[in-house]
Specification:
The chain is an alpha/beta fold and about 425 residues long. Helices cover about 35% and strands about 25% of the residues. It binds guanine (GUN) and fe (iii) ion (FE).
Length: about 425
């Protein structure tokens, strides 16, 4: 079926490139983009149209690193550096997800909130709990969120959420058996090197190879962590080698943070096709540092953005995009490196993630539509008429869920199905 979306089209078809069409037309065939037009071609004149008037139709967001079981601690417990923060708050919070009824409530709310904020693709950490992880996948699928979810593996230094090596492997296999979802797929998730014994890392590396599964983890986030990894793996000169040693350093692997990745580690990422997921809010909250994003990009590393809730305090990816701009300006003040422009940062928080999952950058023909529609009419009245580029910038900085009027995921509008706040 052909459908037409009419409104102001704004997208970033390439890194740093912003394209705008005032009063344009987006033509879909069964949710797949056919083309973007200034004037509607004659052949589509009789097709049903969704008229968004002066609304801004923009690509949706992709959050390539977040921890679902940390949603209950959002906005709390940010007075400690990473390793103490994990022991003091995080592992205890995740331990609650043994209870699948509790997991159902939290994950349903999280899935709906993701859609309400315009995030339609994710790469997500669950907890170590198999049943709660399957519940999470089911709730994301139901809400219309797509992407990857990983049952976390952690057989050492895990306090109340530590598993035995045997259980970790057996439960991973049981979880993979239960993964039968159309739009949410499994990703192997060794939490980070200090959480996994060599034996477990080797088992996961074997699984990744045998079943062609993707991998996500953390890399060079914090000084204390990097020193700990060195002590645990004296044979590895650098952090990334601890993943490489066990077959977990592979094309498409998602490595969150990379704050302290030096030249060699960055080159190893570029060579292997490993992605860096930049989580600026989390890096500031946990005093981890400011990631060398410009350097990573210049070395040819794929970079996407992550909210990293609850180290990050904002689930809404436009806030994460803004935070990445702020962090890049702090970096600029420290080193002189060029900061991220608004279209560049938006590209990283949107197009980069869509590309990771095989989608297009911007509204590219042949791809299922992932988009948000923003109504900026209630934003402060400007002194003059704004260009679409200015309205785009303001929307990125100021919008919240109240301004989002529609959300398309895999070509289908999903926001209408989410009950209002009073019914949640
Ligand atoms: N490193 C290992 N686990 C975590 C986590 O839950 N959050 C962050 N930010 N870093 C980690
Ligand atoms: Fe994280």
């Amino acid at each position: 079926m052909t459908t037409i979306l009419h409104g102001n089209l704004i997208h970033t078809p390439a890194f740093g490139k912003l394209e705008t069409i005032h009063g344009g037309y987006l033509v879909l065939e069964d949710g797949v983009i056919q083309g973007v037009y200034r004037v509607l071609p004659e052949q589509y004149a009789a097709c049903p149209a969704e008229d968004y008037g002066e609304g801004l139709i923009m690509p949706s967001f992709a959050d390539l690193h977040l921890h679902a079981p940390q949603y209950p601690m959002l906005g709390m417990g940010m007075d400690l550096p990473l390793l103490d923060w994990l022991d003091t708050y995080t592992f205890r919070t995740e331990a609650r997800f043994e209870d699948t009824a509790y997991a159902r409530r939290v994950y349903r709310a999280l899935a709906r909130e993701l859609i309400a904020c315009g995030t339609t693709r994710v790469a997500m950490f669950s907890s170590r709990h198999t049943d709660a992880t399957l519940v999470l996948m089911e709730e994301l699928e139901r809400a219309g969120v797509t992407g990857y979810v990983g049952k976390v593996n952690m057989d050492r230094n895990g306090g109340p959420v530590q598993e035995t090596t045997e259980d970790s492997v057996a439960e991973t296999l049981r979880w993979l058996e239960g993964c039968r979802f159309a739009h949410i797929k499994p990703i192997l998730t060794p939490r980070f090197t200090p959480s996994c014994t060599n034996e477990l890392m080797a088992e996961l590396g074997k699984l990744a190879l045998e079943r062609g599964l993707p991998v996500q983890s953390h890399l060079s986030e914090n000084d204390g962590e990097v020193a700990w990894v060195k002590a645990l793996h004296p044979d590895c000169g650098q952090y990334w080698e601890t993943y490489q040693k066990y077959g977990l350093w592979k094309s498409g692997a998602l490595m969150a943070h990379c704050v302290h990745s030096g030249r060699r580690e960055q080159e190893a990422m570029a060579e292997a096709g490993v992605w860096a997921v930049h989580c600026a809010a989390s890096n500031v909250n946990l005093c981890s540092g400011t990631a060398p994003v410009r350097e990573l990009l210049e070395r040819g590393v794929h970079v996407a953005l992550g909210s990293d809730i609850a180290g990050g305090d904002q689930l809404a990816m436009n806030k994460v995009v803004v935070m990445s701009i702020r962090a890049s300006k702090i970096k600029r003040m420290e080193t002189g490196a060029a900061f991220l422009t608004v279209p560049e940062a938006y590209y990283l928080g949107s197009a980069a993630g869509h590309l990771y999952f095989g989608g297009g950058a911007g509204f590219q023909a042949g791809h299922l539509l992932h988009a948000v529609v923003v109504d900026d009419s209630a934003m402060p009245e400007p002194t003059r008429e704004l260009t679409l580029a200015e309205r785009f910038e303001r929307a990125v900085y100021l919008m919240d869920r109240r301004h989002i009027k529609a959300v398309y995921s895999e070509g289908i509008e999903r926001l209408r199905q989410i009950p209002g706040p009073e019914k949640r």
